Each structure stands twice: as C-alpha cells, then as structure tokens.
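Budget justification, computational time. The allocation requested in the original proposal was used primarily to generate structure tokens for proteins on the priority list. As evidence of use, we reproduce two of the resulting records. The first is shown immediately below.
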Amino acid sequence: MKAIDVGALDFPLLRSKEAFETGPLPPSLADGQAAIGRADHLLIVYPLWLGTMPALLKAFMEQVFRPGFAFALQPGRPWKRPLKGKSARIVVTMGMPVFFYRWYFGAHGLKSLERSILGFAGIGPIRESLYGRIEQASETKRRRWLATMRRLGAEAA
C-alpha cells in the first residue's frame, strides 16, 4: 500500500492543452503516478470544498491522469483505457448533510470525479462513502465512521 499526500507535494499547474497532452510529468509526481499504475484499488479521501474536490487534488489528477497513462486516443476508434480493471472508493467529508449535497447539488463534484476522470480512464467499480455534518458529529458517530472505513479497507485488501 502506498499513500500519497497530495497536499505535501510541490508541482506546477497545467496551463494549456499542449502541456496536458505532450508536456513532461513533473518529477515530483512520478512516484505517485507509478503507485497508481501498480495499484489494484484506489482510495481517494477529500473534504468537500465549494461543491467538489479541493483544487490541488484536481490539479494532481490533471497532471497524473494524462494521455498515455490514463487513456490513449485513437482516431476513428474507441479510446484505450490502461487503468481498466482497477477499482476505487471515494470518501468525501462535508459540513452539509449528505442528503442535501445529493438532492440539491446533484453531487456534481463527486460525479465529475467518478465519470470524467476515473471512469474515463477505465477504473471501476467506483464506490463512494460520504460523511456529512462532520463538525457536529459526536465522538461516537466519528468512531462508527472510522470503524466502517477500517472494515471497507480490510475488504478491499
């Protein structure tokens, strides 16, 4: 198992289509990309910020999930998905109730990650665990959440 602390990484943002398609992967992300390539299962944990993942996590995904690694476009044919066969669990914490995020906002940020990044690369199945009103949660509730995460982690191993 390899943990990647995206917040501790130093890497540039992609600023053009050309940089995304043909630019070099920053050396600081090579180990992370290799770990994702070797993994059978990905666990992605983040707090909900403005309805989606934090910008730094999105920037990491843009850098790492590049053409040639996460997908390969072929003119006139379906794209290749080299990460097919991997599974993922996304864990999202938020201040609002989960029901409200799903109902009012349509869980748009979560769907974007599932469909436009992970699913596009062939990763599936993708499961999710959402935890809302975390600031108001009792210690007992937090312990239950952690026990659930440990159980799910053991099942994925």
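The second record produced under the same allocation is shown here.
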Amino acid sequence: MKISEFKQIIDRLAQSPISRDSDVCVVVSEPSIGATATISVKTIGQGFDWNHGKVMIFTEQPIIRKKGKS
C-alpha cells in the first residue's frame, strides 16, 4: 500500500462519526474468542537510511514473525 492510498482511507474514516475518534490498531494473526486480536499503534514515522522510502508503524507491543511455515 502506498501512503496516498493509506491517506485516502484515513481521510474517509476520519470523516465518519462512527470511526472519527477510534483507536488505531494492527490485527494480530492469532486465535481469539470474541473481538479480533489486535495491538495498539504507538506512533507512525518515516524511515531513513536503509528504511528510506517507507512509512513505518510502531506498535505498543512487539510483533514477532514466527519462523517456519507462513
């Protein structure tokens, strides 16, 4: 996803009275009974050096990719 696409979605959500002041979260791929498992977003920043050209989302808790099957 490019930042322009992300902005269009965020702008649309920000105009909705339902989602205007909602928490921003990342969906976590793990079993959950009830609500979808998520981790809160702490901040968003622009990458530099090796991460140049990326917008990076930092979460409140670490997200670790499992080794092995994907």
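A brief technical remark on that second record: Residues 22-63 form one domain.
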